[in-house]
Amino acid sequence: MVSTTSSYNITSSIDNPSATSAATTSTTTAEQDRFLTLLVAQLNNQDPLNPMDNAEMTTQIAQINTVTGIQKLNDTVSSITSQFSAMQMMQGGSMIGHEVLAAGSALTVDADTHTGSGAFDLAGDAASVSVQVVNASGQVIGTEQLGSLGAGRHEFTWDTSAYTGPGGSLSFKVVAANGTTSVDATTLMRDKVVSVGAQNGTVQLQLEKSGYVDYTALKAVL
Predict the structure, then answer these.
(1) pTM of the predicted model as reported, rounded to 2 decimal places
(2) Which of 93, 113, 129 marks a domain boundary?
(3) pLDDT tier, 51 (very low <50, low <70, confident <90, very high otherwise)
(4) Domain of 197?
(5) Helices and strands, number each (H, E), in the chain
(6) Minimal CA–CA distance to 157: which of 138, 170, 139, 176?
(7) How many domains, the chain?
(8) Which residue from 5, 23, 42, 200 puts its CA 20 to 30 A from 88's CA?
(9) Rounded to whole angstroms, how far apart are CA atoms 147 and 16?
(10) What b/e readout covers 200-222, taking b as 16+ CB neighbours within 10 angstroms?
């Protein structure tokens, strides 16, 4: 299960934004103090016969203001990114226990109803579509004829009652065509969300059968 420490740390940045703000202010103030110290030292040690002109001083002040502004912008963007990740975490938490569709070709087998199920996205209309069920050895053990289908998402089921091998090792592939011209199909597997966490700033979902996937890998919540 994904450690809850990551989610706690991200969420805490929302609950206590003053901590981030204080750190940003401290960094910016330190940079300004260093600049002013250097500027005063430069003024104190300048040649009295050839002093720094106003234009040069104005340019240096403008440069530190630009650097300070960029630093503040970077800190603000970083804070927004952390808060966005935390909101994704909370949204992901509402999906725990729900079935989802994610990219993959694993066939979901229900031992009670003796059915295997999955889904796929067709890139275009197809005159003939079939789903081939494949075992761990790559052998086709069953075919489901779906006929003509339009572009978009489609689901299917396959009767597993005659199959006696291990259910967890089954996968499927889609064959779609218009005559001799094939139509691209993206396979989607059904799975259930069991936990939500974060890793390297990315929200991840732990699926019951497929392990960890990125939050953005989900195609639908069923």
Answers:
(1) 0.57
(2) 93
(3) low
(4) 99-221
(5) 3, 12
(6) 170
(7) 2
(8) 23
(9) 57
(10) eeebbbbbeebeebebebbbeee
